[in-house]
Write a structure and sequence with these properties.
Number of strands: 0
Largest sheet: none
Radius of gyration: 18 Å
Structural class: mainly alpha
Number of helices: 10
Strand content: under 5%
Distance between the termini: 20 Å
Helix content: over 70%
Amino acid sequence: MVSLDRLLAFSALALLLIVIPGPSVLFVVGRALAHGRRTALTTVAGNTLGAYVLVAAVALGIGPVVERSVLLFTALKLAGAAYLVYLGVRAWRQRGSLRAAFTRAGPPQRGGLRTFGEGFAVGVANPKTMVFFAAVLPQFVDRAQGHVPLQMLLLGLVFNVIALVSDSVWGLVASAARDWFARSPRRLSAVGGVGGLAMIGLGVTVAATGRKD
């Protein structure tokens, strides 16, 4: 199985990615502000399940192939790192647009099943999560221990538990603090700007780390 040091290192990297406002966070925040706490938490649950579908796809599909090919692993890692840097630059340049997620009016309260389904769709189509799982999960697999797909599923489970907690906090804070954010556009821009810089740093980290064989 995955060693403790690899698990801790992966958890730290996952936490850094998860806390950065991305498509899932903005979706949860928008739902919290438009519909309230219950809708936000239902959205988080659906989003988390959608993200774990990506984990399974990587672990049981492309993950083992990438793990066995140094060339493919390196190419995918660098492509993922470049995309993360691109997302960071775009987030920095468009940091003012975060304001819309906190101020956008929404339709009436929706049913729980529909809300869950929409959260699932966002989670399974999140490009940031796709890049992370495909480019980063193979780096933390201990090939000497075998059971590569199982190790990836475990790492993905850790990622999703962290995401569940983090996204829930985002939703709860957003539903409770909409007035505080709305009074200061600079606060909203700061959130987007910090997230962009952190995303760029994460991309550089992904490019500079990994196996050496």
